[in-house]
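Tokens for DUF1778 domain-containing protein. Go.
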Amino acid sequence: MATARLDIRLDEEIKAKAEKASALLGLKSLTEYVVRLMDEDATQVISEHEGITVEANVFDQFMIACDEAKAPNNALIEAATFTKSGEFK
């Protein structure tokens, strides 16, 4: 059960469009519509900022470079230490 509140003010025209969209989707309320939109958008934004997507050929080149690497250089060792220190999330 939701317990947090969000109080917003918006233009009447925007509210009317949102209410219509909510009704067209068969949702129970404007609140349900807004919560759904916020959840979907927040999930997408977080995913875009916390993930990396690369082309298959770039990933293949990366994997080949990893396989051919003899030993990690100082920059890589420092980066690994930095991530383990908890300063990087």
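The chain has one domain: 12-84.
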